[in-house]
Amino acid sequence: MTLVRISDDALALACGADDVAAAFAAAGCTVERVSSWGMHWLEPLAEIDGQGFGPLEPGDVATVLAEASPKAIGPIAAHPFIARQQRFTFARAGKTRPLSLEDYAANGGWQGLAKAREIGPEATIAEVTESGLRGRGGAGFPAGIKWTTVAKASADRKYIVCNADEGDSATFADRMVMEGDPFMLVEGMAIAAHAVGAQKGYVYIRSEYPHAIAKMEAAVRASAHLIAPVELEVRVGAGAYVCGEETSLLNSLEGKRGEVRAKPPLPALEGLFGKPTVVNNVLTLAAVPWILANGAEAYAAVGFGRSKGTMPIQIAGNVKHGGLFEVGFGITLGELVNDIGGGTASGRPVRAVQVGGPLGAYHAPSDFHLPFDYEAFAAADGLIGHAGITVFDDTADMSRQARFAMEFCAAESCGKCTPCRIGSTRGVELIDRIRARKNADFGRAPDRVEALPQMHNARKVERSLADEIVLLEDLCETMKFGSLCALGGFTPYPVLSALRNFPEDFGAAPAKEAAE
Ligand SMILES: Cc1cc2nc3c(=O)[nH]c(=O)nc-3n(C[C@H](O)[C@H](O)[C@H](O)COP(=O)(O)O)c2cc1C
Ligand code: SF4
Fold first, then answer.
1. What is the mean pLDDT of the segment spanning 13-26?
2. Are 326 and 159 in contact (CB under 8 A)?
């Protein structure tokens, strides 16, 4: 009987994978539901004897089985999108049934945990430190240092918290881990708990991920005996972007309002319920079993500069070949967008690429030489964040995108500090004023409030467009340096990069002219 493998990942389901699976079953095939290969534009993708077919509809099944399908893509493992990758974290993607303990164990699962138990907590932390693994949630903080701080803290209880809030635009790698290879995350958390002496771990998942929640709950139940005495529990967030910020997440886990906490104290010393806590992103924890099983050296041998190992990069937006691309750091932005992503889906020229989610900068194609690396992007006034890439074609209005960044910050602000809470709203108003007059530079007289005598420090003369832009830059400066957390602090990145790289969209002279 023909064995057909089709993903049950949420993206494949959204594209109609269930119907295609049912059509193969009705045609007498055995259908196995596996994780996704991450070639999203080919979903629903079916695999028969290593050969791929996609994107399929139920009506395509007869031609696939008759070996006459125009949707045949050849051997999946040899497809350029897959063959160019270095898959450490996603080594099992597309190959195993997500909730099969048998598949997991037969494909390298639990080897990292066995090694950690064999070498003990101290040597386990040393391996993670030497691997150079940095937090994949955005800040890129070295995982080994965080673990060492928690391990050295003395307390009656310690916790591991997995940050699975994944709120960034264009990101889905955490979701794919949880839906496609949930035992890997369980194993990573068990290793972390063993290393720092934690008894309990929580996986905090956003409510918008019902499939991931169900898979993680099932995986935690099915593997409880393998990771005992460590216990894991899945908790569901209520859908606030700011609850991805680690201290806000801890408040939410404790049943409190998702408001950012001032640091210090660091969560590593006083985290969940006031106890030492490791908070790590899904991808950070999911990288750990591979590191333990294959050795720190093998992991650190891949990468670029201080960015060691691989990064599961998520390519999305207006792009031809969107999906999950895991590769060593150092690949350039241009390679990702043009060679791997295939340019825009619309076929129009690429205008901008936002890297690092809603708080990331908008890069023009002139930045395509940048290597994917924490330091290189920081030096270019950007960030790689959780490695989401959103592509825009030349129809994008970048002043509108800048407005969106401020609006997003205003909507998601936890309200604790003024630069973010008030600044973002003033930022929306200011960008609205700039956009309203971008092609007609009339002056703006002081409004009724500004004209009041008690507003002694308000400007009393008309503001030109150039003045408004200076005011926007000034506001961004205040938000950048005055905000308590990165939501307010990083919102200036998309705003200022849009202004710097695409000034004509704000009514100012194009970048080249301005430089002359
Ligand atoms: C507004 C905001 C949202 C964030 N959202 C997430 C998120 O969804 N997932 C995540 O892992 N980290 C997120 N972070 C980063 C976390 O605060 C924290 O740095 C991370 O969980 C630490 O784990 P890591 O060291 O493994 O990256 C966010 C930070 C901010 C300021
Ligand atoms: S920057 Fe915004 S989200 Fe962060 S603490 Fe301040 S108000 Fe809250």
1. 98
2. no
Three-state secondary structure call for residue 416: coil
Q: Which ligand is nearest to the CA of 171?
A: 1
pLDDT tens digits, residue range 176-196? 999 999 999 999 999 999 999
Q: Which of 252, 261, 485, 491 to mutate to test the pocket of ligand 2 (most atoms within 8 A of CB)?
A: 485
State how far the Cα of 79 lies from the Cα of 399, in Å rounded to an integer: 38
Q: What's the average model confidence in pLDDT over 286-290?
A: 98
Distances (CA, A) of 446 to 129, 425, 441, 458: 57, 19, 16, 8
The residues, ordered by sequence, that sit 6+ positions from 201 with a Cβ below 8 Å of its Cβ are: 159, 160, 161, 162, 189, 190, 192, 193, 230, 231, 232, 233
pTM: 0.95
Distance CA 270, CA 274 (A): 4
pLDDT at 238 over 90: no
Q: Tell me the C-alpha distance between 365 and 358, whole Å.
A: 19
| Residue appearing with tokens 């079993």 | 289
Report whether 255 contacts 74 (CB < 8 A): no
CB 338 within 8 A of CB 321: no
Yes or no: say if 70 and 62 are a contact pair by the CB < 8 Å rule. no
C-alpha atoms less than 13 angstroms from C-alpha of 463 in its C-beta half-sphere = 19
Pocket mutation for ligand 2, best pick of 418, 487, 490 (most atoms within 8 Å of C-beta): 487
pLDDT digit string, tens, across residues 24-82:
999 999 999 999 999 999 999 999 999 999 999 999 999 999 999 999 999 999 999 99
Place of tokens 């007498």: 28
Residue whose token pair is 């409004």: 447
Sheet containing 277-281, strands listed edge to edge, beginning at the edge strand earlier in sequence? 231-236, 200-205, 159-164, 277-281
Residue type at 279 in one-letter notation:
V
